[in-house]
Design brief:
heterodimer, A: about 750 residues, alpha+beta, Aldehyde Oxidoreductase, domain 3, Aldehyde Oxidoreductase, domain 4, 3 domains, five-stranded mixed beta sheet, about 25% helix, about 25% strand, B: about 190 residues, alpha/beta, Ubiquitin-like (UB roll), DNA polymerase, domain 1, 2 domains, 6 helices, about 30% helix, elongated, binds FE2/S2 (inorganic) cluster
């Protein structure tokens, strides 16, 4: 019975967050805690020739300075450093040796009694380098970019371009209308508000409790065990609250390695907090150069799609995602071809950032579709409808559900799309040019195996435990809602334990898969609880449920109730008291069915209005409507916030965000949030979120996940609106006013 | 009102473990140690509690609260005055505490997020933030709420556009802005 699922329930952790009681990684204080301050490299490539610690060590209150020369032993093989989501290659090893592979690389950790002393002493570490020539500009590596290797395992295969379909070159040559364009998305950084931090509590017996900013406590725990040769029972990783991550916390980051190194070396508790500039080497959305070619028939159907991409990676790991294949998935088209090359640069390895690959790929594809609509003299929405695909053409499969048509319809109505004048520069509001643009979004609906433990007390209180995270996504809340409904208890009677590596297994929180996985995990375990309760209830003398099968009862209002006859029921309390049981505990693993007969995706339609000051070119995004098809929505309040956040990110991507590198020194120039622009309150105006109905039976609860779909397509909708307002097509992001030159 | 004497605020009284002392000193050799600046005494009232402190003069107000007084509700998002996560109220005015040395405010009255709820009852803004889901990860939230308290006291905002402009010193990377504005409007409408 659904009392809570599908309702706008307020966050169950809301009280903790608005009162300041919620504790993040750098906020666990213990007596005797000491502080680490990180020293980073000032060159992009080379070796440390000499590192002089004498001045730093002379500072009163400094306990030690760790470098590659004096650090305690760490693992000496790549396998140890390969975390659960590491790409192919040879992972970066913090403080391992004197090699410098990117500017901003950590090279020393000063540990001192206070953070003030550590920071001051860190400024006194003197380093001489032997410098090698570096390349950090993707445009200089264009020719040297290398095609992706054939996939080495099923995960890599997911990220490798799909096979060519039909004969795209010939179809393109024969097309009635063609469009070709090159699109560019620069490096972008996640910039979660919380600084990356680890507090390592050193227990007397050498055991460690590590409070870490991470999206995967168990990933970090396994990694630390391998790198430091520790036993799993000696390392517990915790992250009860995470101040945003957006992908930057999927892999263990270097601050946790440094903090653990120092705690083991000094045998005491250590905190390491990175500075905002130091966070710019933790991973980023790789810059992407894309060439899109579209060939259409005169009636506005597509006949050819070619999507070529060059993306950035580091010298030591090959990071890539499914950058090109989205094009051939989204629209009906008999002929499609893809190429993907990697440009290796002297930078840190990129990492996943909110809807990795789809966000960048759909900026290009959806801009190109807008340009094709102009060439065909067709309404951009009408073009999408003519190219609508009912099947996943990569594998020729039906979708488990696809309510994209409904997104287009409801989104267009809410926006008032039918009042759009198709002419560019035709709409005005006082002195401003007004533009309306639209785009489509797509993402995957994935699920992962997950284990959930539920402990039910005779007083009708339940504890739900799983090692997953809540990075702001609302896991605490939806888990409580699902548990309350599945156990038939009030929401207040549910407590959620997460963000602790000692809890039952969970994958990292990413890919939009946690909501579906953990909710079905809770349902699976709740069924086991129900069965156990039924077993106890049947033992009661004259039990009203004596001859009933487990599928025939449900838990509601604190009772086991016969589905067929609601008058036959036993309360949880009675069943447990009678059996003299205080607590029932069950732990079950949810293994999602591996349904390869259908494609599983979420979709969206985004409509955007921009107003452009004709004199100075300032762009404001005044209205956005985002219509989402993502299966069953567990919580309309937190789900809507997820999408709002995605739209805000899309606005940032379209207009503000760009990591700038001084290629001469190979260093990021705007490694702070004053010069790396993220949207602020004044940038954000009216945003409307619509969830369209989309029943789906891919999992028992019909859930698809929402973390990424909100951002996909937004930048293209805005770029298309800018074109409509100004007649200028900007193909490289962000659309800053210098690019408009009206 | 309670009074807390906190000389040296705990940390500098600590001794280095012997083994560590030797290794560090061996490496430094005969050179004399570089001493830290002389501690300064500061008196502050934080959420109604008076504190007398002896501090390294480089201690920011933010670090004083987070690292010395265990008041971790106020957040550090940049330590550079760029994000507003560290916003607290000093004598009623909203201030970025990361850009403020504690010694600059000797004698001041400070209110942090922990001091807004009176006797367990949430401040109307705290309740409005929950009702409107004006946050996701919650990391910018204490700063947003303290900033909004300051904003309302300033009486400068009369429209949603004013709120957006005057709250733009508080970044929310989760992008909860529209809900933040709605929450503030709800409370402003009432006051
Ligand atoms: S931490 Fe003070 S403004 Fe960012
Ligand atoms: S709620 Fe996460 S930064 Fe604002």
């Amino acid at each position: 019975m659904a009392h809570y699922i599908g309702t706008p329930t307020s966050r169950v952790d809301g009280f903790a967050k608005v009162t300041g009681a919620a504790k993040y990684a750098a906020e666990f204080n213990v007596p005797g805690l000491v502080y680490g301050s990180v020293v980073t490299s000032t060159i992009a490539k080379g070796r440390i020739a000499r590192i002089d610690l004498s001045a730093a060590l002379r500072v009163e209150g400094v306990l030690d300075v760790l470098t590659h020369e004096n650090r305690p032993t760490m693992a000496d093989n790549d396998q140890a450093y390969k975390d659960d989501v590491a790409p192919a290659g040879s992972p970066f090893r913090p403080l391992y040796d004197g090699r410098i592979m990117f500017s901003g690389q950590p090279i020393a950790l000063v540990v001192a009694q206070t953070s003030e002393i550590a920071r001051f002493a860190a400024s006194l570490v003197r380093v001489d380098y032997e410098t090698d020539t570096h390349i950090t500009d993707v445009h200089c590596q264009r020719e040297a970019a290398i095609p992706l290797k054939p996939p080495g395992d099923p995960i890599e295969a997911m990220f490798t371009p799909p096979k060519t379909r039909g004969r795209p070159e010939q179809a393109l040559a024969a097309a009635a209308v063609r469009h070709a364009g090159e699109y560019y998305v620069p490096i972008e950084h996640h910039n979660p508000m919380e600084l990356f931090a680890s507090t390592v509590i050193y227990d007397g017996d050498g055991k460690l409790t590590v409070y870490d900013k991470t999206q995967g406590v168990q990933n970090v725990q396994h990694y630390l065990c391998r790198v430091f040769g520790m036993k799993p029972e000696d390392v517990r990783v915790m992250s009860p609250f995470v101040g945003g991550a957006f992908g930057s916390g999927l892999r263990p980051q270097f601050q946790v390695v440094l903090a653990v190194l120092a705690a083991r070396a000094l045998r005491r508790s250590v905190r390491v907090v990175l500075t905002r500039p130091q966070m710019y080497v933790l991973g980023y959305r790789p810059a992407m150069i894309q060439l899109i070619e579209l060939g259409a028939n005169a009636d506005g159907t597509l006949d050819a799609i070619m999507h070529d991409a060059i993306t950035v990676t580091s010298r030591y790991e090959d990071f890539f995602r499914q950058e090109t294949g989205w094009s051939g998935l989204l629209y009906k088209c008999a002929n499609a071809g893809y190429k993907h090359k990697l440009a290796r640069l002297d930078l840190a390895t990129p990492c996943d950032m909110r809807a990795p690959s789809a966000t960048t790929a759909l900026f290009a594809l959806e801009s190109a579709m807008d340009e094709l609509a102009v060439a065909l003299n067709l309404d951009p929405l009408e073009l999408r409808l003519r190219c609508y695909s009912e099947r996943d053409q990569h594998n020729d499969l039906p979708f488990s559900s696809k309510a994209l048509r409904e997104c287009y319809r409801q989104g267009a109505t809410a926006f008032g799309w039918d009042k759009r004048n198709p002419e560019a520069r035709s709409m005005r509001d006082a002195g401003d040019l007004v533009g309306w643009g639209m785009a489509t979004g797509v993402w995957e609906a994935l699920q992962m195996p997950i284990t959930v433990r539920i402990a039910l007390s005779a007083n009708g209180h339940a504890e739900v435990a799983c090692a997953t995270s809540d990075i702001g996504t609302g896991s605490y809340t939806i888990m409580a809602q699902v548990a309350a409904d599945m156990l038939g208890l009030p929401l207040e009677n549910i407590s959620i334990n997460l963000g602790d590596s000692s809890l039952p297994q969970s994958p990292v929180e990413g890919g939009s898969w946690i909501a579906a996985s953990v909710s079905n995990g809770i349902a699976t375990t709740a069924d086991a609880i129900r069965d156990e309760l039924l077993r106890l209830a049947k033992q009661m003398p004259g039990s009203p449920l004596a001859n009933i099968a487990s599928g025939e009862v449900t838990l509601a209002d604190g009772k086991l109730i016969s589905k067929g006859d609601a008058s036959r029921s036993v309360s949880i309390t009675d069943a447990m008291r009678h059996a003299a049981v205080d607590r029932i505990e069950q732990e079950k693993t949810y293994n999602p069915s591996n349904d390869v007969t259908r494609a599983h995706n979420t979709h969206s339609a985004i409509f955007a209005e921009v107003k452009v000051d004709e004199q100075i070119g300032v762009i404001r995004v005044t209205r956005v409507v985002s219509a989402i098809a993502a299966g069953r929505i567990l919580n309309t309040k937190t789900a809507s916030s997820q999408i709002l956040g995605g739209v805000v990110w899309g606005i940032g991507m379209a207009l503000h965000e760009e990591t700038l590198i001084d290629h001469k020194v190979g260093r990021i120039m705007n490694a702070n949030i004053a010069e790396y622009h993220v949207p602020v309150n004044a940038d954000i105006h009216d945003i409307k979120v619509i969830f369209v109905d989309e029943p789906d039976d891919s999992n028992p609860l019909g859930i698809k996940g929402l973390g990424e779909i909100g951002i996909v397509g937004v930048a293209a909708a805005i770029a298309n609106a800018v074109y409509h307002a100004t007649g200028k097509r900007v193909r490289d992001l962000p659309i800053t006013l210098d690019k408009l030159r009206l | 009102m309670t009074e807390v004497e906190n000389p040296g605020s705990g940390r500098d009284a600590e001794k280095l473990p012997r083994a560590v002392q030797t290794t560090v000193r061996e490496r430094v050799g005969a050179q004399s140690p570089m001493t830290t600046p002389e501690a300064v005494s500061v008196r502050l009232t934080v959420n109604g509690t008076r504190h007398s402190l002896l501090l390294d003069p480089r201690t920011t107000l933010l670090d004083l609260l987070r690292e010395h007084l265990d008041l971790t509700g106020t957040k550090k998002g940049c330590d550079q005055g760029q994000c507003g996560a560290c916003t607290m109220l000093i004598d009623g005015r909203r201030v970025n505490s990361c850009l403020t040395f504690a010694v600059m405010y000797d004698g001041a009255r400070i209110t942090t997020i922990e001091g807004l709820a009176a006797d367990g009852a949430l401040h109307p803004l705290q309740q409005a933030f929950i009702d409107h889901d004006a946050f996701q990860c919650g990391y910018c939230t204490p700063g947003q709420i303290c900033s909004a308290v300051g904003l309302i006291a300033e009486r400068r905002a009369t429209s949603a556009d004013d709120i957006r402009e005057l709250m733009s010193g508080n970044i929310c990377r989760c992008g909860a802005y529209t809900n933040i504005v709605a929450a503030i409007q709800q409370v402003m409408g009432r006051s």
